[in-house]
Amino acid sequence: MVEAVNTSSAAGLNASDSTRFLISNLCSLLETYLEPQDIRDVYRAYLFGAQAHHGQTRLSGEPYIYHPLAVARTMAEMRLDAKSIIAAILHDVIEDTPTAKEQLASEFGEEVAELVDGVSKLTHLTFESKAEAQAENFRKMMLAIVQDIRVIIVKLADRLHNMRTLSVMRPDKRRRIARETLDIYAPIAQRLGMNGMRHELEALGFQALYPMRYRILENSVRKSRGNRKELMNKIETTICGRLEEAGIESRIYGREKNLYSIYKKMRQKKLSFAEVFDVFATRIVVSGVDTCYRVLGVIHNLYKPVPGRFKDYIAIPKINGYQSLHTVLFGPHGIPIEAQIRTDEMDRVAESGIAAHWQYKTGDNNRDKAQAHARRWLRDVLEIQKRAGNSLEFLESIKADLFPDEVYVFTPAGEIMELPHGATAIDFAYAVHSDVGNTCVAVKIDRRLAPLSSELESGQAVEVISVPSGRPNPAWLNFVVTAKARSNIRHFLKHLQREEAVTLGQRLLDKALTAHETTLEDLGKRPIKRLLKELALADMDSLLESIGMGDRMPQLVARRLASPDKAAGQRNKARPTKGGAKVPLSIKGTEGMVVSLAKCCNPIPGDNIVGIMSSGRGLVVHRESCRNVSGRKSTPDQWVDVQWSEQAADEFSAGIRVQTANQRGVLATLAAKVADLNSNIENVSFEERDGSTTTITFVLSVKDRKHLARIMRVVRAIPEVFKVMRIRG
Ligand code: MN
After folding, report:
1. How confident is the model at residue 46 (pLDDT cuts 50, 70, 90)?
2. Is 96 annotated in the active site?
3. CATH of 652-726, one of 3.40.50.620, 3.30.70.260, 3.10.180.10, 3.40.50.720
4. pTM of the entire structure?
């Protein structure tokens, strides 16, 4: 369907700016719809703004305050509420004067301060990229940043005035601003259904960016219009007459296409001017919805409709809330006539879109806050959708526009990255590149260091700091939200696990070989090759990995390597000699993914320990006294002699059980004592035995057995404590 507007606003270059628009003019405009008290507030805002901008001038040389006044005028012409008008007058004071947000809040209230602050935030966003996809992201980002859609309306009105006064700018700057207007601001106006705004922004942007093309098209339109004036009048009169006969009151406008729309259509569809322009368009505005359908009947009776061109946007509104009936007719001499039929209300919404929902309505005593209006509007729209019984498309898009599921952030290069809502700095790092994610160690958000788990917000600039030695942390899996980050972290950890398994496997095999008084080096390559072939393994690393993961016994592998001929049938005879096998494997507790400390008994340095190889999990270290170990006496092949390394890590978990009197404050005393001894409580649970005793189970972080013993001694000394014991698992 062809986009069209009233002739009056098509060019947008009216004389209104040649005479200065004064505060008195604004006030008389506001008197037509606001209360006297509101107008007094607006006047106060004017005095405040004029004072704040005192001494500043625009490029044109006129005092700065005329700019915000002009912005307020546009808002007033859309009949916006008093708060929006005040915000428009003050829209540059935070940005361009020393005025603080708090000052605005105390003078004009929190709402106005928030609006002005929102406009200032948008002013800080600069858009450099030329790519169309990036422009789309930038538009989404702007909408995602604002909490209150009136901020966008002020920003659009601001841009409109800047475009109207663009001629004072340097040509290069003029082109840049015009480009930005066409790429960013006009489409936002369109998305919010503000067609009046959109068409003027497009006309001004087109004229500034392509002055020659604009002039040529403008002349062509003027010529064609002259040629067809008589015919157009005739068609209008005919329609008018028929509607009067049917007893329908209506207003009829001849419409002309916006120059930029014509230009875009000619370019995109490779059409000639005549092909695009040679259409007569009319709009019929009536009072009720039912009447719209009656008008449709009347004009379809008058001129034959072109099949397949009828659209009922009343029953199924466009995604920006636009409602109207559209049809195309075969007019006299075969000239196609495009007709739009709608109610006054629909016409108003079609012109100012979302802005219509903040418009002040006289006689509306219970004036809700603006946001409540918006919510009501969304509800209305939902109603329409329900009645039409069709798709969620409209809702989806409104939601995407105003309450987006995505956040939009800047990369250091100024590109915009789209991420799902809730995405963290780690998700961002992986979105940039998986290598960046795998090696990231820190992040700066808006130039400040922030935790890697920080949730990102639209408009932030995010910079990832990565170092070659950085590696993913399994804990990241607890907060990342994107599939890319998740799968990359998992993949990396798996790879890491393989590396660690190979190292552990090597240690286990070396140890097992000492029982045969030999080493891999002494054996040479031949027996290894033969064994790999027998086991159908690709390489030595695969063999070591399977040992490290607990899938293959190191003793058996060692035996087959050391005495391959005997290995097959005479296992028992080839039992390793005792001496060599007794050199235990030393454990630091930091081996990572293939050596783990059993959760059942929480071994700590100083405990007697034993390792059990378990398939797929590698080596699990238990205390010798652990019940789970004694149950496995029958499978000694899985046992590995282990001992604590001299360089054991310095934090281990240990569980203790404390029986205390059931008395207030005992836990606090306990916690304080534990903290005094440089330990942390990692976990705590209660179990009340009877009215007088409570059993508390702690998991503490301790350095070793001595450290734990010291803690238990101190805890035992607390008068309310009856009994302290370590948990055995
Ligand atoms: Mn401004």
Report:
1. very high
2. yes
3. 3.30.70.260
4. 0.60
